[in-house]
Design brief:
396 residues; mainly alpha; globular
Length: 396
């Protein structure tokens, strides 16, 4: 199946949004909390922005929902396009080795930074008024065995994230993927499979909505690949996918703080269901893009394809850069340049450094998972797998 570059582009945008979220929360916490006491502008500009759709640019929860839904979408594209169930088993066996090596490398990097005393987020948070969020990360004595456990086992079983806060999503990317592969193996191609999918989604909505997001993306992938007439109709009546996309953006941009939104465009929505809004928005955005070739070309552009390619490394490596380099930059210059100019320059430099780290991680570190897999294949020849014909299901 032809690679869907716009799907990877949207996943890349999700990873970039997570980075934006953590930078904004660190230096303009009022843009999230919407509390005047945390504001750094006399007019409360960051609070005003936080109540508009512009907050979507740094909405971490919305980004995670996007990332999980689009990840669920790509997991079984190859299977649905070929009907070859052997691909499911191969992908399931590889899943741990696809995720773990880069997690371990990132955590070793963080362990070294902590051992050298380079984390400055606690003292920075006092000045940026982000103590409620930014100050507590990585404020403990680093322990190599504890870091190793988190990297190899803890983040997969329990979502342990003491060293790298973003690892709380790993159980969804790992166990969610395995559940999807199993569902595809047992129900894929059967007439009543959408009923099975619906039941599973309802169960996961009750148990954990983030798992439901992976399954929602998976169900959309099945329809996209196997229901040609349905997809033709969806594209033909372009107003419907356009409305789905617009509604998706609206729901995704609901402020993550989940407080009363009286006087804003979100006033009609009860404030208690933020995660539901974001997950529904991610699905709406997905099905909208699937029906609009113009948006597919836009999100498949070169810059977005680059972000999609480096999305996993970007996701894992950005926070230690913010907690070290960004903080050192701010602490060294804010008294000389003033708050806003310092943060602006800090953002530009940090972004360049984060993207460079993500590219290096994708280019030189992520392939270690494949090398490890080949090495294990030589040791255990019976488990050695053939080369995949398409890499779509292997992307994070």
């Amino acid at each position: 199946m032809k690679k869907l570059s716009y799907i990877d582009g949207l996943k890349g945008i999700g990873a970039l949004m997570v980075y934006f979220c953590h930078f904004v929360f660190a230096f303009y916490y009022a843009a999230y909390s919407l509390s005047p006491e945390a504001a750094h502008t006399a007019s409360g500009l960051e609070i005003a922005i936080g109540k508009t759709p512009l907050n979507l640019l740094y909405s971490g929860n919305a980004a995670v929902c996007l990332f999980l839904v689009f990840s669920g979408f790509v997991l079984c594209l190859s299977y649905f396009s070929t009907g070859d169930k052997r691909r499911l088993g191969k992908s399931a066996r590889r899943r741990y080795l696809r995720l773990m090596p880069m997690i371990l490398i990132a955590n070793i990097f963080i362990f070294l930074l902590m051992s050298l005393g380079l984390y400055r987020n606690a003292e920075t948070a006092v000045l940026t008024k982000s103590e409620a969020w930014f100050a507590g990360f990585n404020q403990f004595a680093p322990d190599f065995l504890r870091m190793l456990y988190e990297s190899l086992i803890g983040c997969f079983l329990q979502g342990s994230n003491d060293y790298n806060g973003v690892l709380w999503t790993i159980p969804y990317l790992f166990w969610g993927a395995l559940a999807v592969y199993l569902a595809a193996y047992l129900a894929g191609g059967r007439r009543l499979r959408y009923l099975v999918y619906g039941v599973l989604i309802l169960i996961f909505l009750k148990v954990d909505i983030y798992f439901a997001g992976v399954f929602l993306g998976f169900a959309a992938s099945d329809f996209f690949c196997t229901q040609e007439k349905g997809m033709k109709l969806w594209r033909r009546f372009w107003v419907l996918p356009l409305l789905a996309f617009a509604l998706g953006v609206y729901l995704l941009s609901y402020p993550s703080i989940g407080v009363d939104m009286a006087g804003t465009i979100y006033a009609p929505l009860p404030p208690a269901y933020t995660v539901i809004y974001h997950m529904a928005g991610a699905v709406g955005l997905l099905i909208g893009v699937l029906g609009l070739p113009g948006l597919q070309r836009f999100f498949g552009a070169g810059a977005f394809r680059f972000l999609g390619d480096v999305s996993y490394s970007l996701y894992l490596l950005h926070f230690p850069v913010v907690a070290t380099f960004s903080c050192w930059f701010f602490l060294g210059l804010h008294e000389k340049l003033g708050y806003h100019l310092t943060v602006g320059l800090d953002f530009l430099c940090t972004t360049a450094l984060v993207l460079l780290a993500a590219w290096l991680g994708r280019r030189y570190l992520e392939p270690l998972g494949g090398a490890l897999e080949k090495g294990l294949g030589r040791i255990f020849p019976g488990g050695k797998s053939r080369r995949t014909e398409t890499g779509s299901e292997e992307k994070r």
